[in-house]
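Here is an idea for our session: we take a single protein and study its fold together. To get us started, please write out a protein record for me. Once you have written the record down, we can walk along the chain together.
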Amino acid sequence: MSNDTAVFLGQFLRSPGKIGAVAPSSRKLAAAVCAPIPERGEPVVVELGPGTGSFTAEIQQRLGGRGHHLAVELNEPLARLLIERFPAVDVAHADAAKLEELLGQRGLGQADVVVSGLPWAAFPGGLQRDLMSAVTSAMSVGAAFTTFSYIHAIPLSSARRFRALLAERFEEVVQGRTVWRNTPPAFVFHARRPRP
């Protein structure tokens, strides 16, 4: 078991409803989730629920020193780990529901890309809606949102409710192919153009 897996599993056992996974995401899943990050310009990229940093590393590689990368992590031990591991990333130990406030405090305006590692299918309906409202309110008109779901969660009512919420809040939602090289296998949702 890798060190990251041990850390992740420990945090999951302490708060399964907030962590939502037993292991960090694979590089294959990270590449699929981070695909919307633009190759040029100075984008504002927000990462929600970065955990041990699987997506964080991929975002940093794609940005190559450009733009601003804000990682919002509610779990304090994981936030501390991210701060140590990724000194170039602006890590906020905070609730994703405060995203607009966090961006405002930094003078960043709105996000161009939001990459989410949050366990949406583990959240009750009210929390899903509140968090999605915070996310879409903080996004620019043409912004992209990506997240993922494990294939075993497909039949869950909370997962179906989340898919309906994506369709309600974004003009375009595309489900990617299954990433089999992840534990457990997962697929990605790519959403664009948040509805007001």
